[in-house]
Prior knowledge:
This is PPM-type phosphatase domain-containing protein. Pfam families: PP2C_2. This protein has a single domain (about 5-255), classed as 4-Layer Sandwich (Phosphatase 2c, domain 1). The protein is built from nine helices and twelve strands. It is an alpha+beta fold. The protein has helices at about 15-20, 55-75, 80-85, 90-110, 170-175, 195-200, 210-220, 225-235, 240, and strands at about 5-15, 25-35, 40-45, 120-125, 130-135, 140-145, 150, 175-180, 185-190, 200, 205, 250-255. The chain is globular.
Amino acid sequence: MSRAMWKFANASVRGSAHLENCLPCQDWSTLRVVGPDRNVVICALSDGAGSARFADEAAQLVSEGAIEFFARELNDHPDPARVLAAYERLDGKLMIQEQQRTLQQLAAERRAPVQDFACTLLVSVAHPKISLFFQIGDGCWAASRGGILGAVTWPAQGEFVGQTEFVTSPTAASSFQMGRIDGRLDFIVGITDGLERLALDMNACIPHPPFFSPLARRLKSEMNQESFSSGLHQLLESERVCARTDDDKSLVLMVHDE
């Protein structure tokens, strides 16, 4: 395997409700390996708001933009772990504000309200010594250390059922969630809200190990990461999953592999 010390995979699939209504997939997920030793993995997921006209485009823009924000500083730095250890909430705020400016500029060019680009955003920056997590809106980041799986962030709920916060929200740059875990992690996983019913115990506010742990074990033993990603895509499109959720769904998974 590569010097990254991580195995990773991601998938975003269109929900059955979107298929029936001839709507595109409004989720996006992506990963990038950076750093001089190729041991930092930046992941991003986004779920475009169903009511937003350009939701699918917005989800891709903020995901790619967030990764670029962190890659600019980490890619050539001789000690990425030191950079990450110095990150504060202000750095997350600057990352979000940069994505807001991108959406605001595009909205102005198209003479559309910025709400037409509403989307959530989840970002993780993982190094073997330290991992950071950021989230606006629903979805979840979870991580396992020493065989114990726990939530790092949790779905943000609005005043009404089904309501959440978006990158385009005026308060996004101040109310986002941020988490930090020092030390080696077994695996990291992020999901958009389309998988919350399957993957989270919403009453206990904990991730559901029977959903996540088998995926992590399989990826760790998988020699072909592309094959695993293909299988992950098929799983998210399966009848078993679609019977529980008709929404778009995304999942990113990173497994530490020495």
